[in-house]
């Protein structure tokens, strides 16, 4: 089943997200969540909004995508009574891994997970900070599905809906707290 984004904004948290033009490469407007993370009330509100759609869904593991996905997924896992599993950049995990290469809006990258990180048949949610083109989320889903787990869906703090990443995740539940429908023309390079 495909569900739409909550499309709701937790009052005030958008104001804690800073746009940084031309980072990490020219033409990209980076969504900096560090001001949100530094404010205890905004951070708490964001975690609650990201966790709510998954309550009562028997989540066994919350997978966080490196690196900002870790920050959001770990407290969500705790709130859901689930385990936390990292999807890391290549070469960062010490045990046997599986890998997936994927395209970004500004290049390519690779993610890895430990092969023994989740029991087959477990219920899993994938969490990251931003849904842009969907490449990272899709690669992470390919990793978890290769481990034989049940993907319940995806959660994001911010969705850049104008990049249509949600379409790459069709067939899965996708929840985003904040949706950005178009880039700010003042930030165009």
SSE string, helices as H and strands as E: EEHHEHEEEEHEHE
Instruction: From the alpha carbons, calculate the radius of gyration and give it in angstroms.
Output: 16 Å
Low-confidence stretches: 1-9
Total beta strand runs = 9
| N- and C-termini, Cα separation | 38 Å
What is the count of helical runs? 5
Strand order of the largest sheet: 5-6-4-3-7-8-9
The total number of structural domains is: 1
Largest sheet: 7 strands, mixed
CATH architectural group: 3-Layer(aba) Sandwich
Structural class comes to alpha/beta
Question: How would you describe what is shown here?
Answer:
With 189 residues, this protein is α/β, with parallel strands linked by helices. It has one domain (13-187): 3-Layer(aba) Sandwich (Rossmann fold), CATH 3.40.50.2020. The protein is built from five helices and nine strands; from the N terminus they run E-E-H-H-E-H-E-E-E-E-H-E-H-E. The protein has helices at 34-38, 40-51, 68-80, 135-146, 165-168, and strands spanning 18-21, 29-32, 61-65, 83-89, 97-104, 107-114, 123-131, 150-160, 173-180. The strands form two sheets. The protein has a seven-stranded mixed beta sheet, sandwiched between helices. It has a two-stranded antiparallel ribbon with strand order 1-2. Strand 5 (97-104) and strand 6 form a beta hairpin. Helix 2 packs across helix 3. The longest helix has 13 residues, at 68-80. The protein is globular and about 40 Å long. 38% of the residues are buried. Mean pLDDT is 90; it is low at 1-9.
């Amino acid at each position: 089943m495909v569900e739409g984004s909550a499309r709701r904004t937790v009052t005030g948290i958008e104001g804690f997200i800073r746009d940084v033009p031309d980072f990490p490469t020219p033409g990209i407007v980076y969504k900096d969540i560090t001001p949100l993370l530094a404010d205890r009330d905004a951070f708490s509100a964001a975690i609650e909004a990201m966790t709510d759609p998954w309550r009562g869904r028997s989540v066994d593991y919350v997978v966080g995508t490196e690196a900002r996905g870790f920050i959001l997924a770990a407290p969500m896992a705790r709130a859901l009574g689930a385990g936390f599993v990292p999807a890391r950049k290549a070469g960062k995990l010490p045990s046997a891994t599986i890998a997936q290469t994927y395209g970004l809006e500004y290049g390519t990258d690779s993610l890895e997970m430990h092969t023994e990180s989740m029991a087959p048949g477990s219920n899993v949610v994938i969490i990251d900070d931003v849904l842009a083109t969907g490449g990272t989320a899709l690669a992470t889903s390919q990793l978890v599905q290769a481990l034989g787990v049940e993907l319940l869906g995806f959660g994001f703090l911010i969705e850049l809906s104008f990049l249509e990443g949600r379409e790459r995740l069709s067939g899965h539940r996708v929840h985003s707290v904040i949706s950005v429908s178009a880039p700010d023309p003042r930030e165009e390079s």
